[in-house]
Amino acid sequence: MRFSRFFIDRPIFAGVISVFITLLGLFAFPNLPLAQYPDIAPPSVMVMAGYPGASAETVAETVAAPIEQEINGVENMLYITSSSSNGVAQITVTFKPGTNLDTAQVLVQNRVALAEPRLPEQVRQGGVQVLKQDTGFLLLVALTSKSENADIDMIGNFANSVLKDRLLRIQGVGGVQVFGGGLYSMRVWIDPGKAAARDLTATEIVGALRAQNIQAAGGSIGSPPFNSGVTNELPVQVEGRLKTAEEFGKVVIKRSAEGQVTFLRDVARIELGSQDYSVRGYFGGDRGIAMAITPSPGANAINASHAVLEAVKAAEPEFPAGVEWKVPYNPTEYVEASVESVQHTLIEAIFLVMIVVVVFLQTWRAAIIPIVAIPVALVATFVVQLLLGYSINSLSLFALVLAVGIVVDDAIVVVENVERNMRLGMSPKEAAYKTMEEVSGALVAIGLVMLAVFIPAAFVPGIPGVFFRQFAVAIATASAVSLLVSLTLSPAMAAMLLKPHSHEPKKKGGIFGPLQWLADKFNQGFDWLSDRYGRITGRLVRMSVIMLVAYAALLGLTGWRMTETPTGFIPDQDQGFLIGVIQLPPGASLERTDAVVKRAAAQLAQTEGVQDLAAFAGMDGASFTNSSNAGVMFIRLKPWEERGSALNAQAMAGQIMGAMGAIEEANIFVLAPPAVQGMGNGGGFKMMLQDTSGKGYKALE
Question: DSSP string of 35-86?
């Protein structure tokens, strides 16, 4: 074959091509994101709006409904869901897989702008946020204090004003939500009796506060058109927004005709507190707040989580006195362990293949040719993955594990044929020429067959297609590069490294050295096995009818077992975490929910296999929005080696749910996290009821 002859005559050029491909792959590798699975979750955009003081029903009717009506039908939309709680509306728009998330965000933003004139004034003033939603939490960072009199307001303010901004600057972090604490806020508690005695309403008090708590521009002295000969221009600094409770107390609410003045302190109690008290967090029995970090789309989750932990550790000296931090929920640990396990499998596969090659070829000159082909073909896949925007994940690494055998086969075909031609008396270079004339067509055919088998998997529609696309591309790329190496580098190396066969007796030593006797025994055993295999095969060929019947029986057995085997998307996995959802009757107060959450947390702390716990009262575990009658728990299990198979995640979920049945005040469900982040908030199925006749929530209940 002329193509291969060109590289046999120019071995350095063949080597340079392979080195260039390898270097490209090595440069591409650090830039590839690391993930457990390909990004298969449909892209989604979240719309959030706040309506302070409004009930869930009011929020649903006046905020969520108008926005939903305008967004519905936006380009490439799959479905839309909304969750309304007291004072907050959250709408999630899910798009078809492959939709550009930036474009989707702009389309939703335009639709929201159309709905804004129909929204209440308070909602328009607070603004409606349109955010790109990622697949789930990257991790939870908890700030806690063991003191019973811990100032949660101070911890929440530190998290919001100091730590949150630093974490948002980290590459790969898309958002930070603080649960259980807010920024400092001046709380004004109006006394209805005193206000009524002075003929004041809440609206009048709010209006006075807005009018007198402003940041105004004071202008300057000496600026044009002032022309009295002054030599300096001085800016005027005026007292701006109020800062202390005393200053707020001096706000004038009303002035009577007789000159009597009513101050805010006369009709209200004023104190410095938190902006939000709707969620309470507990971590291993300690009160605190949590920072939920979400990754930006396409980010390297593992690198981002490491950077977050380093940033929090660096900020530790600035923490308020007595405040500690912990990580009660970190799903990236399982992702990292899973990917690392597949990486080890890949390394082991390469090592075992190298041993097999050395054992069978029994000369380092012949063994090094297929061994060199392995890294060239495997590393080249990283270039294609980077160009296509893929990641290094369990499926792409598994593809490389399978590709190891394909890569070695191509190179061994070349080496074995060169050796065979050399035994016929040819020189290594002549044997390489002859070999490529004989096997080039077969090598190309094998490569094309591999591409024909795996490339179609990349075009499977829907989520399964997205899931297996990276697997197909990785193994197809490795096969194509392996074909290129077998036609260029392998014959060139064979012509250079292999030595002509000598008719003299083989000397003891070589690659096995003192263990040459073991190699001789292996060869004798393999020759005997080959001879026996040939004899058995010859006998079976003469019993063709029996073999065809056996073959048909095996096909039938395979088909029967396929129909009987349960089907599913991804097997249940023990990720080392569980999620507990607590639901009280509608209208239950936060105090009542808090008591239930404390009781459940105390019971979990005594459960075998549980290592740590983060519990929140006032948070809906399904939508992660504020709800006074709901709670959620993130349960961290002990390491896998300490629990054993009897205490796997599924078994512990059932065990905990059974124990929680003793808490009759609430329904408590314990779920494993979803196998793929973004495909729901928990494993298993979720059922929803839809009101298609407009009868309202009570009819559904």
Answer: -SS---SPPEEEEEEE-TT--HHHHIIIIIHHHHHHHTT-TTEEEEEEEEET
- pTM equals 0.75
C-alpha separations of 361 from 391, 425, 443, 498 in Å: 36, 19, 20, 12
431-458 pLDDT tens trace? 889 988 988 888 999 889 989 988 888 8
pLDDT tens column, 290-336: 898 888 877 788 888 999 999 999 999 988 888 889 888 888 888 78
Backbone phi, psi, residue 274, to 5° = -100, 155
Buried/exposed code over 499-520 (b: 16+ C-beta within 10 A; e: otherwise): eeeeeeeeeeeebbeeebeebe
SS3 591: helix
**Per-chain mean pLDDT for the chain:** 84
- Domain borders along the chain are 42-134, 341-501, 529-561, 577-682
User: What's the token pair of residue 690?
Assistant: 């839809």
Secondary structure tally for the chain: helices H, strands E: 25, 19
Packing angle between helix 489-497 and helix 364-387, nearest 10 degrees?
A: 160
DSSP 506: P
- Could you give the CA distance from residue 637 to residue 609 in angstroms, rounded to a whole number? 6
Say whether the peptide bond before residue 317 is cis (omega within 30 degrees of 0): no
d(CA 40, CA 135): 10
Q: Hey, is 40 helix, strand or coil?
A: coil
What type of residue is 441? G
Side chain identity, residue 395: L
The CATH number that domain 42-134 falls under is: 3.30.70.1430
C-alpha distance from residue 477 to each of 24, 209, 483 (Å): 14, 67, 10
For the record, the structure tokens of 209 come out as: 């506060």
Residue 416 to residue 448: CA distance in whole angstroms: 21
The whole-angstrom separation of Cα 367 and Cα 419 is 12
Q: Supply the DSSP symbol for 398.
A: H
Q: How far apart are CA 362 and CA 366, in angstroms?
A: 8
CATH 1.25.40.10 fits 577-682, yes or no: no
482-507 average pLDDT score? 79
Judge whether residue 683 has pLDDT over 70.
Answer: no
What gap in Å lies between CA 404 and CA 287, rounded to an integer?
52
In CATH, the number for domain 341-501 is 1.20.1640.10
| Same fold yes or no, 42-134 and 577-682 | yes
The two three-digit tokens of residue 339, written as one number: 């990917």
